[in-house]
Amino acid sequence: MFKKLKEQPAVGKLIAQYDQLPRRDQQALTVMAIAILLGLLYFMVWRPVSDFHDRAVADHENSADLLAWMEANEATIMRLGGADGDTGEAAVAVADGRALMALVTRSAREAGLSLQRFEPSGQNAIRVWLEDAAFAEVAAWLERLNSGHGVIVDQAAMDRSREPGRVSVRLTLTI
């Protein structure tokens, strides 16, 4: 492989120029090439891998903390979510995306949740953003939407807030 590389006219010209340099300049050029190669390896390989690892560890710790909080508050969540099956709401099917949007906004308001943003996502889905909401209230609201209206959480992302028990949530809800 190196033989074919050396046979290239441009590479041959560079090697000839290198050979014509004084010994001291050749050594300096070699040291500089090694330093640049090490810098590239650090900034293009090691640092991104290290940053990814650090983020993954932090995400894992956050998830473990959230799971521990959820397990510690399971009874409250189940109580607020109406896990006994007696929510008092009749199951009502949602016909289309506009009805889903109306249902989601109305039920969020009734649950005491303030939607920061919402937008349609396809024909039968809606994306919803909540900021700094009580986790138990969000969980109870989602359970009511599911059990009472057949609304399904298609995608969900939760980030805990600085205050315990509060989260920022991004959801995609479908019918």
Automatic annotation (TrEMBL):
The keyword Cytoplasm does not apply. Coiled coil: none annotated. InterPro entries: T2SS_GspM (IPR007690), T2SS_M_periplasmic_sf (IPR023229). It is found in: Cell inner membrane. The chain crosses the membrane at residues 28-46. It is a single-pass membrane protein. Its main location: membrane. Keywords: Cell inner membrane, Cell membrane, Membrane, Protein transport, Transmembrane, Transmembrane helix, Transport. SUPFAM superfamilies: General secretion pathway protein M, EpsM. Belongs to the GSP M family. Inner membrane component of the type II secretion system required for the energy-dependent secretion of extracellular factors such as proteases and toxins from the periplasm. This is Type II secretion system protein M.
